[in-house]
Amino acid sequence: MNTAPLQGIKVIDFTEVQSGPSCTQLLAWLGAEVIKIERPGVGDATRNELQFDPDCPSYYFLQLNSNKKSLTLDAKTPDGKEILTKLIQSCDIFIENLHPGAIDKLGFGWDAVHKLNPKCIYGTIKGFPVASQYSSLKAYEPVAQVTAGAASTTGWYEGDYNIPTQSGAALGDSNTGMHLTIGVLAALAQREKTGEGCYVYQSMHNACLNLCRIKTRDQLTLDRIGYLTQFPQYPDGKFGDCVPRSGNTEGSGVLGWTYKCKNWANDPNDYVYVILQRGAKDFELACHALGFDDWLTNPNFNTADARDKHKNEVWARIQEFCITKTKFEVTELLSKAGVPVGPVLSTKEIMTDPHNYDGNTLVKIDQGGKIGEFVTVGVPFTMSNYQPVYGPCPDLGGNTAEVLKSYGYTDQQIAEFAKNGTTSPMPKETSAPDKKA
């Protein structure tokens, strides 16, 4: 029995780079047939971006396009428009992430597609909501982060590095793709009731803002009382009218921080994150594990509110505890007492940990040929009755003939499409050599 959730669902993937492909790759891993439309002779922009070998597609492309089929198609040519029309008429989902106005100019905006196939779900990714004053901006990952409150609340809160800082996580790109996936799956469930597809619009800005929800919570609190007790600036610093940067504080009611461990001078990631919870019993267990039993009777530390007012002293003493141990030793000692704690792991440590190769967390895909095996992040959730099969990425146009034949095109027609620029680049004109006098 095939338990793939999206078995039988056909997706036309008119996206490139990261935000759109991250969505369509997840749909493919869940069992959908995903046909990726790529520019003849060029392909997705990430194929040739940050390459490790000039003859191979980049890991950027490989990590976002597993299990898809590649159809090279210039949708601006008459034949290209006809082919794309046929694809849309037979698909369940059409997804695009072109710049604003481009898909409408091409003739395949929501209204046009809905007329061609009323059952088709139309997913689109743009930088900003339609009503946004910034809707005309060209949106990249950092643009989404700086306009959605992520950058202004990330980074250090004093000194030379007190500048808005973007996250290492792709809050504007892959996060947007995941948000669109939710919307598309909701639309599929809705179609079961209505029989009709709908338009799912996802902006990078809103996806990023959704992950900054607690910062809007902090703004409400700041507007109400003028300070934020969980921030390093409390109680001695001054608060302005907006949520400030907070360094490595945990950000909610508990007291968390990142501490140096004994090899920090040689290892930039020999750090550990330790959290002191607010509950009296939890705090007591933490004190026993840290050897800080005197805190249990000290009015500066024996209540959560008191600890908020003496953060620097708390941080300094826990730092003394951590600096004589490795991050793994601190983690083992404190976790036994139920203290929330975790080592700061580098990408190298994560990718060489065999426990992460559990079938979903990290997966190895055999691309074959010169590339061989590569690692990527798998489906972020697990299902009790379904295990994704992680297959290779397609060669540029590697499925063009296969797809076109499935739509009834003959070998002669396919050859003509390649000659007229529909599926292959038009040959460059060569100037005739000068005649000698």
From TrEMBL:
Assigned keywords, A-Z: Transferase
Gene3D superfamilies reported for this sequence: Crotonobetainyl-coa:carnitine coa-transferase, domain 1 (3.40.50.10540), formyl-coa transferase, domain 3 (3.30.1540.10)
GO MF annotation, one: formyl-CoA transferase activity
Signal sequence residues: none
SUPFAM superfamilies, per the entry: CoA-transferase family III (CaiB/BaiF) (SSF89796)
The keyword Thylakoid appears for this protein: no
Source species, domain of life: Bacteria
Name of the molecule in the record: Formyl-CoA:oxalate CoA-transferase
